[in-house]
Design a protein that fits this description.
The chain is an all-beta fold and about 270 residues long. The protein has strands at about 1-5, 20-25, 30-40, 45-50, 55-60, 65-70, 80-85, 90-95, 100-105, 110-115, 130, 155, 160-165, 170-175, 180-190, 195-200, 210-215, 220-225, 230-240, 255, 260-265. A four-stranded antiparallel β-sheet has the order 4-5-6-7, with no helix packed on it. The protein starts with a strand and ends in a 10-residue tail after the last strand.
Length: about 270
């Protein structure tokens, strides 16, 4: 078994990473052995594997591209295949649609959602769709100057893709048909003013979605309509203890707090969400 780790590499990010690191994982002892570092890559941040595990893909933070690599079955090492444009600046997340034929990318500064087809040999084809994401910005003077999509989450049936937007305090919903994202009947759910929606996750077997709001360190629970893609808000909970008073941002479901350097865990009610 192998683990793949992306890293920031640019001086602008004050980064110390070298690229993508490949580790061999000993499942018995839980140890990691470094087997390869793919260098000369600009900020390979979020990574995604193909459904069959033969290929790895990465976005390049602060740039405009994503790259494809073949994975050697025996050694786990990576071989560069090709690179394509995402059509917008600072791609931060990529996800396969359920068919495995398309990668959907959030361009954080480009304020857009990109679709890049993937060929049978794992290579990236040219950008096929680019959807601009707009909306009134939130009140945060630094983080909410424009739309900032940050994540792409397909629903379990693969009919809709959910895109939290940190800049507009909205979570956009697109119907995904034959590689084309189209706004759902209810195209977005509005979060609390200044909350900064960032990452989301579906409940494993019930119709609920949980959304981390980065800027106010909260988690929102939504009831999800699998036929329409509609998100109905149920509850908002803080990811911080009442005694914490410093600057903080939550950045993950489950949920990590950057300023406090803590992880908040939430108990879930399967019937009510």
């Amino acid at each position: 078994m192998y683990a793949y780790v992306g890293s920031r590499t640019s001086k602008e990010r004050n980064a110390r990473g070298k690229g993508i690191s490949v580790f061999r994982l000993d499942s018995l002892w839980g140890t990691l052995e470094l087997v390869q570092v793919v260098e000369d890559l600009m900020n390979p941040s979020f990574l995604s594997l193909s459904r069959d595990g033969r290929f790895l893909y990465t976005v390049h933070g602060d740039e405009h591209e994503l790259s494809a690599f073949a994975i050697d079955h025996d050694s786990g090492t990576l071989t560069f295949l090709n690179q394509q444009s995402t059509g917008g600046k600072n791609p931060v997340h990529l996800a396969f649609d359920p068919s495995g034929r398309y990668l959907v990318v959030s361009n954080h500064i480009g304020a857009s959602l990109a679709v890049v087809p993937v060929a049978a040999d794992g290579r990236l084809e040219s950008l096929s769709q680019l959807v601009e994401i707009e909306g009134p910005v939130g009140p945060h003077r630094v983080e909410q100057r424009q739309s900032k999509p940050h994540f792409n989450l397909f629903d379990p049936a693969g009919r809709f893709v959910i895109v939290p937007d940190k800049g507009t305090d909205r979570t956009n919903v697109f119907r995904f048909v034959n590689g084309k994202p189209e706004p759902a009947a209810v195209p977005f759910a509005v979060a609390r003013n200044g909350s900064g929606p960032r990452h989301a996750s579906f409940h494993p077997h019930a119709p609920f979605v949980y959304l981390v709001n980065e800027l106010d360190s909260t988690v929102t629970a939504y009831r999800y309509d699998e036929l329409s893609g509609n998100l109905d808000p149920l509850q908002v909970l803080s990811a911080l203890p009442d005694t914490f008073t410093g600057n903080n941002r939550a950045s993950e479901i489950g949920a990590s707090n950057r300023g406090m350097d803590s992880i908040a865990a939430f108990e879930n009610d399967d019937s009510s969400g």
